[in-house]
Specification:
This protein has 426 residues and is an alpha/beta fold. It is built from 13 helices and 17 strands.
Amino acid sequence: MPFWDDKTASTALLRLFEPTQGWRAHDDVTDGEGRTTAQGACRSVELALHNALNASNLLVLTGAGSSYCAKTHNGQSAPSMAALWDAVEAAATTETFNEIVSLIPNAATLNKNIEKLLTLCKLYSTLFNDATAAKIAAFVDVAEKAILKRVDFVTASTELGSHRNLIRKIARRSVRKPRAKIFTTNYDLCFEAAAREQQFVVIDGFSHSIPQTYDRAHFSYDIVRRENDTDPPDYIESVFHLYKLHGSIDWRRKQQTILRSTDPSIGSPVLIYPRDSKFQEAFDAPYLDMMGAFQSALREPDTAIIISGFGFNDDHLAMPVMAAIEANMSLRVIVCDVSFLADSALEGVPPPHVAPLTSPMRTVGNQYFEKLKNLVAIGDQRIMLLNGRFEDMAHALPDLVAQTERERHLDRMQRLREVSGEGPPA
């Protein structure tokens, strides 16, 4: 198995929603002798993913769900909302944390939703100018530092097989097509680290000079190979665009300049912290550049967008997707999320593994998932809905290009490190 594969990924967990049959399993059903007794949805899924990869413009939208599969040897992984709540509580000390919760109305009923807690804290400190507001503002500062520290979990030992899989498959499209674009709400460095491990080039708005500074004009640059002044320029392979819609743990603002650095002495972090003001903050620089690129890309003709690990909980991102579905007739949308079906709908389902249309959904109350499902149900063939994890979707993506000699070399070097007991390259 090549070193970029994720051993935990499996297409067997994928389910495809079909208007007449409900949720159909990806894999074929076979008997004890290997004969196919019921066809799965694998052919429909593979065709749709293949067509998406071959679209003139390919977009990927992802969020926290894509980082949950990134694991380190010590068990550290991307934090959930509850994990961030615990990290903030530990940083503030339990006594102080409980005091803040007691000061904020209804905070005790938030079920460890740190986004809602910080929203209420910011609202209180904005509305009032008293000793309590000052105490809450100080708590918010501690909370933001704790969140920044907790999301910085990627190390040289972090397993990023699914991220490598996705990048390798989308970034090796024909160089004659526009570069694939990944839009993510994550602050962590999973995609950057996965690209570095495979020696892929990331265009993310930062200069290639030191210190690296952000300028939206850098997104219009590309990388070419020039040998003996050949003409026209030869675009190199394995390049993709990365847009971090909510900022990154290695961005720092120094006056009017954004630098790539994790040094807190350089300036303040450039992050949109979890709270309800994300909609407004997303239209400040540099997030406005990212949002503009996202909305513009969705309106391009012959565009395909793969959405996985994104729960449609951010209105400022979900609304442009829904608007593009309405306005762009050539837009193709593939959504893969674990939220469509409850676990009980996937267990003990008889061949051909079809869950009934009434199967329980985790997303009760999520208007966007419901709208997408209704569009498929009434015959919108531009949209495909899959129930599954980010890693399963990345595993199911087809390879458009055979393994190159450079990739075989990287595979051999990784196997050599494993035999020698060494970890992945730093």
